[in-house]
Design brief:
The chain has 497 residues and is an alpha+beta fold. The chain contains 20 helices and eleven strands. 55% of the residues lie in helices and 8% in strands.
Length: 497
Protein backbone atom coordinates (compact mmCIF):
# COMPACT_ATOMS: atom_id res chain seq x y z
CA UNK A 1 0.00 0.00 0.00
CA UNK A 2 1.38 3.44 -0.89
CA UNK A 3 1.50 6.34 1.54
CA UNK A 4 -1.11 8.17 -0.49
CA UNK A 5 -3.66 5.40 -0.02
CA UNK A 6 -2.91 4.72 3.63
CA UNK A 7 -5.78 5.41 6.03
CA UNK A 8 -5.38 8.70 7.86
CA UNK A 9 -6.29 7.28 11.22
CA UNK A 10 -5.10 3.91 12.41
CA UNK A 11 -6.14 2.99 15.99
CA UNK A 12 -3.42 0.96 17.68
CA UNK A 13 -5.90 -1.03 19.74
CA UNK A 14 -9.61 -1.54 19.99
CA UNK A 15 -11.58 0.97 22.01
CA UNK A 16 -12.17 0.01 25.63
CA UNK A 17 -15.85 0.89 25.35
CA UNK A 18 -17.83 3.69 26.93
CA UNK A 19 -17.37 5.26 30.35
CA UNK A 20 -19.64 7.79 32.10
CA UNK A 21 -22.71 6.12 30.56
CA UNK A 22 -21.50 6.86 27.05
CA UNK A 23 -22.47 9.88 24.89
CA UNK A 24 -25.48 10.92 27.03
CA UNK A 25 -23.32 10.98 30.16
CA UNK A 26 -20.54 12.86 28.35
CA UNK A 27 -23.05 15.48 27.19
CA UNK A 28 -24.57 15.89 30.65
CA UNK A 29 -21.13 16.26 32.27
CA UNK A 30 -19.94 18.69 29.60
CA UNK A 31 -22.94 20.96 30.22
CA UNK A 32 -23.55 20.29 33.91
CA UNK A 33 -20.10 20.60 35.47
CA UNK A 34 -19.48 24.15 34.18
CA UNK A 35 -22.89 25.10 35.57
CA UNK A 36 -21.83 23.73 38.96
CA UNK A 37 -18.85 26.12 38.95
CA UNK A 38 -21.09 29.11 38.23
CA UNK A 39 -23.71 27.91 40.70
CA UNK A 40 -21.14 27.71 43.50
CA UNK A 41 -19.94 31.22 42.65
CA UNK A 42 -23.42 32.77 42.74
CA UNK A 43 -25.12 30.76 45.49
CA UNK A 44 -22.29 31.41 47.98
CA UNK A 45 -21.23 35.05 47.82
CA UNK A 46 -20.42 38.23 49.74
CA UNK A 47 -23.56 40.00 48.53
CA UNK A 48 -26.27 38.20 50.51
CA UNK A 49 -24.92 35.03 52.06
CA UNK A 50 -23.91 31.40 51.73
CA UNK A 51 -26.29 30.06 50.61
CA UNK A 52 -28.32 33.00 49.34
CA UNK A 53 -31.34 33.68 51.62
CA UNK A 54 -33.90 32.77 48.96
CA UNK A 55 -32.50 29.25 48.89
CA UNK A 56 -33.68 28.88 52.49
CA UNK A 57 -37.18 30.13 51.59
CA UNK A 58 -37.84 28.87 48.05
CA UNK A 59 -41.54 29.82 48.20
CA UNK A 60 -40.58 33.50 48.32
CA UNK A 61 -38.16 33.15 45.44
CA UNK A 62 -38.60 35.44 42.45
CA UNK A 63 -36.29 35.93 39.49
CA UNK A 64 -35.63 39.56 40.42
CA UNK A 65 -34.81 38.61 44.01
CA UNK A 66 -32.60 35.76 42.88
CA UNK A 67 -30.58 38.05 40.63
CA UNK A 68 -30.19 40.60 43.41
CA UNK A 69 -29.08 38.08 46.04
CA UNK A 70 -26.77 36.19 43.69
CA UNK A 71 -25.00 39.33 42.51
CA UNK A 72 -26.00 38.68 38.90
CA UNK A 73 -24.17 41.08 36.52
CA UNK A 74 -26.11 44.24 35.67
CA UNK A 75 -25.56 43.64 31.96
CA UNK A 76 -26.88 40.10 32.23
CA UNK A 77 -25.17 37.02 30.88
CA UNK A 78 -22.71 39.17 28.95
CA UNK A 79 -21.25 40.22 32.28
CA UNK A 80 -19.97 36.68 32.83
CA UNK A 81 -17.24 37.33 30.28
CA UNK A 82 -14.77 40.12 29.66
CA UNK A 83 -12.26 40.57 26.86
CA UNK A 84 -9.95 42.37 29.28
CA UNK A 85 -10.06 39.54 31.81
CA UNK A 86 -9.65 36.95 29.07
CA UNK A 87 -6.61 38.86 27.81
CA UNK A 88 -4.97 38.74 31.24
CA UNK A 89 -5.74 35.01 31.56
CA UNK A 90 -4.16 34.35 28.15
CA UNK A 91 -1.13 36.37 29.27
CA UNK A 92 -0.88 34.12 32.34
CA UNK A 93 -0.93 31.03 30.11
CA UNK A 94 1.68 32.58 27.85
CA UNK A 95 3.88 33.34 30.86
CA UNK A 96 3.58 29.69 31.91
CA UNK A 97 4.64 28.59 28.42
CA UNK A 98 7.60 30.99 28.36
CA UNK A 99 8.81 29.84 31.78
CA UNK A 100 8.58 26.20 30.73
CA UNK A 101 10.74 26.96 27.70
CA UNK A 102 13.18 29.41 29.30
CA UNK A 103 13.90 27.91 32.73
CA UNK A 104 16.23 24.93 33.03
CA UNK A 105 14.57 21.61 33.78
CA UNK A 106 14.89 17.86 33.93
CA UNK A 107 14.47 16.17 30.56
CA UNK A 108 13.11 12.66 30.81
CA UNK A 109 11.55 10.07 28.55
CA UNK A 110 8.02 8.86 29.20
CA UNK A 111 6.79 5.28 29.35
CA UNK A 112 6.98 3.15 26.23
CA UNK A 113 4.06 3.76 23.89
CA UNK A 114 2.22 1.01 22.04
CA UNK A 115 4.38 1.80 19.01
CA UNK A 116 7.47 1.10 21.12
CA UNK A 117 8.61 4.73 21.05
CA UNK A 118 9.04 7.08 24.02
CA UNK A 119 8.16 10.77 24.16
CA UNK A 120 10.47 13.31 25.74
CA UNK A 121 9.29 15.65 28.53
CA UNK A 122 10.83 18.70 30.19
CA UNK A 123 10.02 19.18 33.87
CA UNK A 124 10.34 22.57 35.59
CA UNK A 125 6.80 23.24 36.87
CA UNK A 126 8.11 23.76 40.42
CA UNK A 127 10.63 26.46 39.49
CA UNK A 128 8.09 28.06 37.15
CA UNK A 129 5.53 28.31 39.96
CA UNK A 130 8.11 29.65 42.41
CA UNK A 131 9.09 32.33 39.88
CA UNK A 132 5.50 33.52 39.49
CA UNK A 133 4.83 33.43 43.24
CA UNK A 134 8.05 35.36 43.88
CA UNK A 135 6.70 38.14 41.69
CA UNK A 136 3.38 38.03 43.57
CA UNK A 137 5.27 38.20 46.88
CA UNK A 138 7.08 41.36 45.78
CA UNK A 139 3.79 42.95 44.76
CA UNK A 140 2.20 41.98 48.08
CA UNK A 141 5.18 43.39 50.00
CA UNK A 142 4.76 46.72 48.21
CA UNK A 143 0.94 46.98 48.14
CA UNK A 144 -0.25 44.54 50.82
CA UNK A 145 -3.75 43.13 50.42
CA UNK A 146 -4.42 45.79 47.77
CA UNK A 147 -1.91 44.22 45.38
CA UNK A 148 -3.53 44.32 41.94
CA UNK A 149 -3.38 40.55 41.39
CA UNK A 150 -5.38 39.76 44.53
CA UNK A 151 -8.05 42.42 43.95
CA UNK A 152 -8.30 41.45 40.28
CA UNK A 153 -9.00 37.81 41.16
CA UNK A 154 -11.69 38.70 43.70
CA UNK A 155 -13.38 41.37 41.58
CA UNK A 156 -13.46 39.25 38.39
CA UNK A 157 -14.02 35.78 39.83
CA UNK A 158 -16.87 34.64 37.55
CA UNK A 159 -15.20 36.18 34.49
CA UNK A 160 -12.07 34.17 35.32
CA UNK A 161 -14.19 31.02 35.33
CA UNK A 162 -15.52 31.94 31.89
CA UNK A 163 -12.08 32.70 30.45
CA UNK A 164 -10.60 29.40 31.61
CA UNK A 165 -13.70 27.53 30.49
CA UNK A 166 -13.35 29.07 27.02
CA UNK A 167 -9.71 27.99 26.86
CA UNK A 168 -10.63 24.44 27.91
CA UNK A 169 -13.36 24.32 25.26
CA UNK A 170 -11.09 25.71 22.55
CA UNK A 171 -8.29 23.26 23.37
CA UNK A 172 -10.75 20.34 23.33
CA UNK A 173 -12.03 21.30 19.89
CA UNK A 174 -8.51 21.89 18.57
CA UNK A 175 -7.07 18.54 19.68
CA UNK A 176 -10.20 16.67 18.56
CA UNK A 177 -10.04 18.13 15.05
CA UNK A 178 -6.28 17.64 14.85
CA UNK A 179 -6.51 14.00 16.00
CA UNK A 180 -7.83 13.03 12.57
CA UNK A 181 -4.41 13.78 11.11
CA UNK A 182 -2.80 10.98 13.13
CA UNK A 183 -1.29 8.57 10.61
CA UNK A 184 0.14 5.10 11.02
CA UNK A 185 3.89 5.12 11.53
CA UNK A 186 4.08 8.92 11.76
CA UNK A 187 7.50 10.35 12.66
CA UNK A 188 6.08 12.41 15.54
CA UNK A 189 4.99 9.21 17.37
CA UNK A 190 1.40 10.38 17.69
CA UNK A 191 -1.19 7.82 18.81
CA UNK A 192 -4.88 7.60 19.54
CA UNK A 193 -6.08 6.84 23.06
CA UNK A 194 -7.55 3.32 23.47
CA UNK A 195 -10.83 4.65 24.86
CA UNK A 196 -11.15 7.75 22.71
CA UNK A 197 -12.02 6.54 19.21
CA UNK A 198 -15.54 5.19 19.66
CA UNK A 199 -16.77 6.97 16.55
CA UNK A 200 -19.22 9.15 18.51
CA UNK A 201 -18.31 12.84 18.16
CA UNK A 202 -19.59 14.01 21.56
CA UNK A 203 -18.06 11.15 23.52
CA UNK A 204 -14.68 11.24 21.77
CA UNK A 205 -14.49 15.05 22.09
CA UNK A 206 -15.21 14.71 25.81
CA UNK A 207 -12.99 11.73 26.66
CA UNK A 208 -10.10 12.66 24.36
CA UNK A 209 -9.26 11.11 21.02
CA UNK A 210 -5.48 11.62 20.83
CA UNK A 211 -3.30 10.23 23.60
CA UNK A 212 -0.56 12.86 23.86
CA UNK A 213 -1.33 15.83 21.57
CA UNK A 214 1.64 18.13 21.03
CA UNK A 215 2.17 21.43 19.24
CA UNK A 216 5.30 23.30 18.19
CA UNK A 217 5.20 27.06 18.85
CA UNK A 218 7.61 29.69 17.51
CA UNK A 219 10.47 30.43 19.95
CA UNK A 220 8.87 28.33 22.71
CA UNK A 221 9.28 24.97 20.96
CA UNK A 222 7.33 21.73 21.36
CA UNK A 223 4.65 21.64 24.07
CA UNK A 224 2.86 18.53 25.27
CA UNK A 225 -0.63 20.00 25.72
CA UNK A 226 -1.84 17.39 28.19
CA UNK A 227 1.26 17.49 30.42
CA UNK A 228 1.21 21.31 30.34
CA UNK A 229 -2.41 21.51 31.47
CA UNK A 230 -1.97 18.79 34.07
CA UNK A 231 0.37 20.70 36.41
CA UNK A 232 0.80 24.29 35.29
CA UNK A 233 -1.96 26.91 34.81
CA UNK A 234 -4.66 25.21 36.88
CA UNK A 235 -2.53 23.88 39.74
CA UNK A 236 -0.76 27.18 40.33
CA UNK A 237 -4.06 28.98 39.76
CA UNK A 238 -5.44 26.95 42.69
CA UNK A 239 -2.79 28.46 45.00
CA UNK A 240 -3.23 31.96 43.56
CA UNK A 241 -6.99 31.80 44.23
CA UNK A 242 -6.39 30.73 47.84
CA UNK A 243 -3.89 33.55 48.36
CA UNK A 244 -6.30 36.07 46.85
CA UNK A 245 -8.95 34.91 49.33
CA UNK A 246 -6.51 35.27 52.23
CA UNK A 247 -5.74 38.82 51.08
CA UNK A 248 -9.45 39.60 50.79
CA UNK A 249 -10.13 38.40 54.32
CA UNK A 250 -7.36 40.64 55.62
CA UNK A 251 -8.70 43.55 53.60
CA UNK A 252 -12.18 43.09 55.09
CA UNK A 253 -11.32 42.41 58.70
CA UNK A 254 -7.74 43.51 59.31
CA UNK A 255 -6.66 40.01 60.36
CA UNK A 256 -6.22 36.52 58.93
CA UNK A 257 -7.81 33.55 60.70
CA UNK A 258 -6.20 30.25 61.60
CA UNK A 259 -8.84 28.42 59.53
CA UNK A 260 -7.97 30.04 56.21
CA UNK A 261 -4.24 29.73 56.93
CA UNK A 262 -4.66 26.02 57.65
CA UNK A 263 -6.58 25.38 54.42
CA UNK A 264 -4.16 27.44 52.32
CA UNK A 265 -1.16 25.62 53.79
CA UNK A 266 -2.74 22.18 53.25
CA UNK A 267 -3.66 22.95 49.66
CA UNK A 268 -0.34 24.65 48.86
CA UNK A 269 1.56 21.62 50.17
CA UNK A 270 -0.66 19.42 47.99
CA UNK A 271 0.12 21.53 44.92
CA UNK A 272 3.86 21.96 45.50
CA UNK A 273 4.29 18.29 46.33
CA UNK A 274 2.77 17.51 42.92
CA UNK A 275 4.97 20.12 41.21
CA UNK A 276 8.13 18.88 42.92
CA UNK A 277 7.29 15.30 41.96
CA UNK A 278 6.33 16.32 38.42
CA UNK A 279 8.08 13.36 36.71
CA UNK A 280 5.72 11.03 38.58
CA UNK A 281 2.91 12.02 36.21
CA UNK A 282 4.55 9.91 33.49
CA UNK A 283 3.19 6.72 35.07
CA UNK A 284 -0.30 8.06 35.83
CA UNK A 285 -3.40 6.96 33.94
CA UNK A 286 -3.95 10.55 32.78
CA UNK A 287 -0.71 10.41 30.77
CA UNK A 288 -0.41 6.74 29.83
CA UNK A 289 -4.03 5.83 29.07
CA UNK A 290 -6.49 8.71 28.84
CA UNK A 291 -6.78 10.87 25.77
CA UNK A 292 -6.84 14.64 26.09
CA UNK A 293 -10.34 16.00 25.60
CA UNK A 294 -12.78 18.25 27.40
CA UNK A 295 -12.79 15.98 30.47
CA UNK A 296 -9.13 16.61 31.27
CA UNK A 297 -8.98 20.16 29.88
CA UNK A 298 -11.95 21.30 31.97
CA UNK A 299 -10.83 19.31 35.01
CA UNK A 300 -7.30 20.74 34.95
CA UNK A 301 -8.09 24.36 34.07
CA UNK A 302 -11.50 25.05 35.62
CA UNK A 303 -12.79 22.39 38.00
CA UNK A 304 -9.63 21.93 40.05
CA UNK A 305 -8.78 25.59 40.78
CA UNK A 306 -12.31 26.94 41.19
CA UNK A 307 -14.02 24.03 42.98
CA UNK A 308 -11.11 22.92 45.17
CA UNK A 309 -10.68 26.47 46.51
CA UNK A 310 -14.32 26.98 47.59
CA UNK A 311 -13.47 26.57 51.28
CA UNK A 312 -10.96 29.42 51.25
CA UNK A 313 -13.40 31.61 49.32
CA UNK A 314 -16.05 30.96 52.00
CA UNK A 315 -13.63 31.84 54.82
CA UNK A 316 -12.64 35.06 53.07
CA UNK A 317 -16.10 36.36 53.96
CA UNK A 318 -16.84 34.43 57.15
CA UNK A 319 -13.63 34.51 59.24
CA UNK A 320 -14.03 31.46 61.46
CA UNK A 321 -11.52 31.05 64.31
CA UNK A 322 -10.73 27.42 65.14
CA UNK A 323 -8.63 27.92 68.26
CA UNK A 324 -6.01 25.46 69.45
CA UNK A 325 -8.39 22.53 69.91
CA UNK A 326 -9.87 23.03 66.45
CA UNK A 327 -6.45 23.17 64.82
CA UNK A 328 -5.33 20.01 66.64
CA UNK A 329 -8.52 18.21 65.57
CA UNK A 330 -8.08 19.10 61.90
CA UNK A 331 -4.39 18.17 61.99
CA UNK A 332 -5.29 14.82 63.59
CA UNK A 333 -7.67 14.00 60.72
CA UNK A 334 -5.03 15.00 58.18
CA UNK A 335 -2.35 12.93 59.95
CA UNK A 336 -4.63 9.87 60.26
CA UNK A 337 -5.50 9.92 56.57
CA UNK A 338 -1.89 10.48 55.55
CA UNK A 339 -0.76 7.58 57.77
CA UNK A 340 -3.13 5.18 56.00
CA UNK A 341 -2.28 6.58 52.57
CA UNK A 342 1.49 6.45 53.04
CA UNK A 343 1.57 3.14 54.95
CA UNK A 344 -0.51 1.40 52.28
CA UNK A 345 1.60 2.72 49.41
CA UNK A 346 4.86 1.90 51.20
CA UNK A 347 3.65 -1.64 51.89
CA UNK A 348 2.79 -2.19 48.21
CA UNK A 349 6.01 -0.63 46.93
CA UNK A 350 8.19 -2.66 49.30
CA UNK A 351 6.44 -5.86 48.32
CA UNK A 352 6.94 -5.11 44.62
CA UNK A 353 10.59 -4.15 45.12
CA UNK A 354 11.67 -6.87 47.57
CA UNK A 355 9.12 -9.42 48.83
CA UNK A 356 11.69 -10.65 51.36
CA UNK A 357 11.94 -7.26 53.08
CA UNK A 358 11.53 -8.04 56.83
CA UNK A 359 8.91 -5.29 57.12
CA UNK A 360 6.52 -7.05 54.72
CA UNK A 361 7.83 -10.62 54.52
CA UNK A 362 5.01 -11.84 56.79
CA UNK A 363 2.27 -10.68 54.43
CA UNK A 364 0.05 -13.21 52.70
CA UNK A 365 -0.46 -13.12 48.96
CA UNK A 366 -1.83 -15.14 46.08
CA UNK A 367 -0.13 -15.92 42.79
CA UNK A 368 -2.01 -15.45 39.54
CA UNK A 369 -1.84 -17.42 36.32
CA UNK A 370 -0.45 -14.33 34.58
CA UNK A 371 2.61 -14.51 36.83
CA UNK A 372 1.66 -11.61 39.08
CA UNK A 373 0.95 -11.55 42.82
CA UNK A 374 -1.87 -9.95 44.81
CA UNK A 375 -1.56 -9.05 48.48
CA UNK A 376 -4.32 -10.50 50.66
CA UNK A 377 -3.24 -9.31 54.12
CA UNK A 378 -1.93 -6.16 55.74
CA UNK A 379 -3.38 -2.92 54.44
CA UNK A 380 -4.23 -4.55 51.10
CA UNK A 381 -6.14 -7.27 52.91
CA UNK A 382 -8.04 -4.65 54.91
CA UNK A 383 -9.63 -3.43 51.66
CA UNK A 384 -8.72 -3.43 47.98
CA UNK A 385 -7.83 0.27 47.80
CA UNK A 386 -6.58 1.44 51.23
CA UNK A 387 -4.58 4.27 49.66
CA UNK A 388 -7.84 5.74 48.31
CA UNK A 389 -9.38 5.48 51.77
CA UNK A 390 -6.50 7.47 53.27
CA UNK A 391 -6.78 10.02 50.49
CA UNK A 392 -10.49 10.52 51.20
CA UNK A 393 -9.94 10.94 54.95
CA UNK A 394 -7.36 13.64 54.19
CA UNK A 395 -9.96 15.38 52.01
CA UNK A 396 -12.01 16.06 55.14
CA UNK A 397 -9.23 18.26 56.52
CA UNK A 398 -9.81 20.64 53.59
CA UNK A 399 -13.43 21.20 54.62
CA UNK A 400 -13.45 20.82 58.41
CA UNK A 401 -11.84 24.28 58.97
CA UNK A 402 -15.08 25.83 57.66
CA UNK A 403 -16.96 24.29 60.60
CA UNK A 404 -20.75 24.13 60.47
CA UNK A 405 -20.81 26.49 57.54
CA UNK A 406 -23.33 29.08 56.42
CA UNK A 407 -23.77 32.84 56.79
CA UNK A 408 -26.06 35.75 56.00
CA UNK A 409 -24.89 39.22 55.02
CA UNK A 410 -26.96 42.04 56.55
CA UNK A 411 -26.56 45.36 54.81
CA UNK A 412 -27.18 48.93 55.84
CA UNK A 413 -27.39 48.55 59.63
CA UNK A 414 -25.22 51.16 61.36
CA UNK A 415 -23.17 49.68 64.19
CA UNK A 416 -20.83 51.50 66.51
CA UNK A 417 -17.91 49.16 66.06
CA UNK A 418 -14.43 49.24 64.61
CA UNK A 419 -13.29 47.55 61.43
CA UNK A 420 -12.94 43.81 62.02
CA UNK A 421 -14.63 43.76 65.45
CA UNK A 422 -16.97 40.93 66.42
CA UNK A 423 -20.16 40.52 68.39
CA UNK A 424 -20.94 37.09 69.81
CA UNK A 425 -18.24 35.72 67.56
CA UNK A 426 -19.74 37.26 64.41
CA UNK A 427 -17.65 39.42 62.08
CA UNK A 428 -18.46 42.75 60.46
CA UNK A 429 -17.51 43.85 56.98
CA UNK A 430 -16.39 47.44 56.74
CA UNK A 431 -18.55 49.58 54.48
CA UNK A 432 -17.42 53.09 55.25
CA UNK A 433 -19.59 54.73 57.94
CA UNK A 434 -21.98 51.76 57.77
CA UNK A 435 -20.99 48.23 58.70
CA UNK A 436 -22.29 45.12 56.99
CA UNK A 437 -22.80 42.34 59.45
CA UNK A 438 -21.97 38.75 58.58
CA UNK A 439 -23.65 36.22 60.85
CA UNK A 440 -24.77 32.62 60.62
CA UNK A 441 -28.38 32.82 61.72
CA UNK A 442 -30.70 30.44 59.90
CA UNK A 443 -28.03 29.78 57.25
CA UNK A 444 -25.94 27.80 59.77
CA UNK A 445 -25.32 24.33 58.39
CA UNK A 446 -26.68 24.99 54.92
CA UNK A 447 -23.36 26.40 53.74
CA UNK A 448 -21.88 22.94 54.21
CA UNK A 449 -23.46 22.02 50.88
CA UNK A 450 -20.80 24.29 49.38
CA UNK A 451 -17.82 23.90 51.71
CA UNK A 452 -18.12 20.11 52.06
CA UNK A 453 -18.95 19.53 48.40
CA UNK A 454 -15.28 18.67 47.83
CA UNK A 455 -15.54 15.69 50.21
CA UNK A 456 -18.56 14.32 48.37
CA UNK A 457 -17.05 14.94 44.94
CA UNK A 458 -13.76 13.34 45.96
CA UNK A 459 -15.60 10.23 47.16
CA UNK A 460 -17.31 9.96 43.76
CA UNK A 461 -13.97 10.49 42.01
CA UNK A 462 -12.24 7.78 44.06
CA UNK A 463 -15.09 5.32 43.51
CA UNK A 464 -14.86 5.97 39.78
CA UNK A 465 -11.10 5.38 39.90
CA UNK A 466 -11.65 2.21 41.91
CA UNK A 467 -14.13 0.90 39.33
CA UNK A 468 -11.70 1.67 36.50
CA UNK A 469 -8.85 -0.01 38.38
CA UNK A 470 -10.89 -3.13 39.04
CA UNK A 471 -12.09 -3.30 35.45
CA UNK A 472 -8.45 -3.25 34.33
CA UNK A 473 -7.55 -5.90 36.92
CA UNK A 474 -10.43 -8.06 35.73
CA UNK A 475 -9.07 -7.92 32.19
CA UNK A 476 -5.55 -8.64 33.40
CA UNK A 477 -6.12 -11.40 35.95
CA UNK A 478 -9.40 -12.97 34.78
CA UNK A 479 -10.70 -15.72 37.12
CA UNK A 480 -7.89 -15.01 39.59
CA UNK A 481 -9.40 -11.60 40.22
CA UNK A 482 -12.68 -13.22 41.25
CA UNK A 483 -10.78 -15.43 43.71
CA UNK A 484 -8.98 -12.37 45.04
CA UNK A 485 -12.30 -10.57 45.62
CA UNK A 486 -13.49 -13.50 47.72
CA UNK A 487 -10.43 -13.07 49.96
CA UNK A 488 -10.57 -9.26 50.11
CA UNK A 489 -14.28 -8.45 50.15
CA UNK A 490 -14.32 -4.71 50.79
CA UNK A 491 -13.41 -2.18 48.12
CA UNK A 492 -12.80 1.04 50.07
CA UNK A 493 -14.52 1.17 53.43
CA UNK A 494 -14.73 -2.14 55.35
CA UNK A 495 -18.26 -2.95 56.46
CA UNK A 496 -19.80 -0.34 54.16
CA UNK A 497 -18.38 -0.50 50.64
Amino acid sequence: MSKSTRKSVLPATKSHGYEFQGPPGALVLSLGLPLVCYLAAFVCNDVSGCPIPSALHPRSLTLAKLKEEAGWPQNGIWGLASLRVSGFVLAYYLLSLVLQAALPGLVQQGVKLRSGARLEYKFNAFSSAVTILFGAAIGTYLDGADFALWTFIWDHYTQLITANLAIAFALSCFVYYRSFSVKAGNKHRRELAPGGHSGNLIYDWFIGRELNPRITLPVIGTIDIKAFCELRPGMLGYVLLDLAFVAHQYKLYGFVTDSIILITVFQSVYVFDALWMEPAILSTMDITTDGFGFMLAFGDLVWLPFIYSLQARYLAVYPLHLGLSGIVGVLAVQAFGYWIFRAANNEKNRFRTNPKDPRIAHLEYMKTSSGGTLLTSGWWGFCRHPNYLGDWIMAWSYSLPTGIAGYIVKHGSPVLMSHGDTVDGQGFISGGPVKHQVLQGEARGWGMLITYFYVLYFAVLLIHRQLRDEEACQRKYGDDWEKYKEKVRWRLLPGIY
